[in-house]
Amino acid sequence: MELEQTGFLESRSININANSFILLLRKGDNRAFETLFRLYYDKLFHIAKGYLDSHEDAEGVVQNTFLKIWEYRLKLEVSTNLNGYLYAMTKNACLDHLKHQKIKNNYIDLRQHKKRMIQYQFLKDEAASLLLKNELERKIIQGLDLLPEKCKKVFVKSRMEGLKHHEIAKLMGISKRTVDNHIANALRHMRLHLREFLSLIFIILLK
Fold first, then answer.
1. In the beta sheet, which residues pair with residue 15?
2. What CATH number has the domain bearing residue 51?
3. Residue range of the domain that includes 174
4. What is the CB neighbour count within 10 angstroms for residue 62?
5. Which pLDDT belongs to residue 179?
6. Which of 7, 63, 71, 183 is the most buried (most CB within 10 A)?
7. b/e 7-44 (16+ beta carbons within 10 angstroms → b)
8. Does residue 2 sit in helix, strand or coil?
9. For the domain that residue 136 is a member of, what is the CATH number?
10. Mean pLDDT by 10-residue block, N- to C-terminus, for the chain (207 residues)?
């Protein structure tokens, strides 16, 4: 292995065989490790990207590969084929990542399925639905009370009393644009305040 063009050798060109290079790694030579990184990073990243869709995940796998090489450098045999060793480590790390991701996705899907089943059973019960409606009404009142007084008044007249924007503006002595802004702000606030109920409201209305 000739390292003349890698920056590893500073003063003169020397041919170094793989065995000697591994010995340098075992001794913790930082320049040897830097050379290894420069020679193999792009190649290993290309392999990892072939297994993983995420650019970020591929980078993480390759970085961990080099980290493990450094941490376990004393276990490297002098006769180790670094090329095959690095490729095998990267491939196995990618397969482990995919396996872990699959388990994680299956767990998330299972939790979501259980949550939907609980919601479905809950909504089938009329008494439970009534409790949910009461809770929703309480949350709506609570959300309205958190609005600034004028914004709350405009919103109530629009959504609960059914007045048009220009009617509210005339009644309250403010511009229609001000009414529009108050209602837009109130809607944003209420969507945030009621976000946990939004997915259930439509189910209740369809019962």
1. 2
2. 1.10.1740.10
3. 125-206
4. 26
5. 92
6. 183
7. ebeeeeeeebeeeebbebbeeeeeebbebbbebbbeeb
8. strand
9. 1.10.10.10
10. 39 49 85 87 89 85 89 80 85 86 70 66 59 74 88 89 91 92 89 71 48
